[in-house]
Amino acid sequence: MSTQFAGTIALINSWANVFLYSMEVTLSAYFFQCHKTNRYQKFSLGGSLFLDTVCSAVVCYYTWLRIDDPMIESWSRGIITILTYFVSVCEQLYLVHRYWIIARNRVVVFFVLLGAIVHLVFGFISGLLSLVVPGSVHSYGILSLTIAAVTCAATDLLIAINIFYATRNIDTINPSTQSLLFRLSIIGISSGIVTATATTLKIILLFTSLRGFAFLFNLVGRIYTLTIVVNCIALERQKNARARSIATENSETQTSNNSRSPGSVVLTTLGQLLSVFSNHLETRKFI
């Protein structure tokens, strides 16, 4: 009964993995098709998708092995561990790049990069131990997994809090820019909370239920990639909405200028051009 249950759990895990992977591929295709992308978005999202594709294939292979023999252990567990932490680094680099554009704070960026390196190294060590010592819970493997998970969660929260703080402390008198900054702060803190919550659950399950830990760990990489693609889509939507708002304001101003004298129209037009230029600079800074 226990072996049948383990096989069933592995099958459900693979279904959830395929569902999340299909969602991220669909959203990524929509993003690349419908929005202009910069080099960093292509690198972050493309790299995460590639790693997730390999990881999802390994998860499905591992599930196939578990259904055939629920007690089997293979090299796939170590590969999943290594790939998952590489995906988490891609997500953190994407978010810290956004933070750097907004705040230019070298101290925060240094600690984020340090945290990313630490959890990647210990995650890699844990994956290697799983490959070298398959089928056993190695004491150093548990320790390295714990350090990697704690550091990863702390790094996610550090990024989220600082993005929220940076966007909420920018002074601007433009209402549309204020609205944009508010939405950016909500997106940033939400992303960090989601990823940090998933990582915290991993830590709890690591000491309470190894089966639950394995179930969640197989899905965390997809959660990280979904965080990147949702951020990309949300930011592009905010940018497009802001552009439409500016265009509407300019159109209304132009309409009101038709009833004014030629001199006032010239002065108003110059002011309007300066306003458009200022809005354009602010948009490029925050998005």
From TrEMBL:
<feature type="transmembrane region" description="Helical">
    <location>
        <begin position="213"/>
        <end position="235"/>
    </location>
</feature>
<feature type="transmembrane region" description="Helical">
    <location>
        <begin position="76"/>
        <end position="96"/>
    </location>
</feature>
<keyword id="KW-0812">Transmembrane</keyword>
<keyword id="KW-1133">Transmembrane helix</keyword>
<keyword id="KW-0472">Membrane</keyword>
<feature type="transmembrane region" description="Helical">
    <location>
        <begin position="44"/>
        <end position="64"/>
    </location>
</feature>
<protein>
    <recommendedName>
        <fullName>Transmembrane protein</fullName>
    </recommendedName>
</protein>
<feature type="transmembrane region" description="Helical">
    <location>
        <begin position="139"/>
        <end position="165"/>
    </location>
</feature>
<feature type="transmembrane region" description="Helical">
    <location>
        <begin position="108"/>
        <end position="133"/>
    </location>
</feature>
<feature type="transmembrane region" description="Helical">
    <location>
        <begin position="186"/>
        <end position="207"/>
    </location>
</feature>
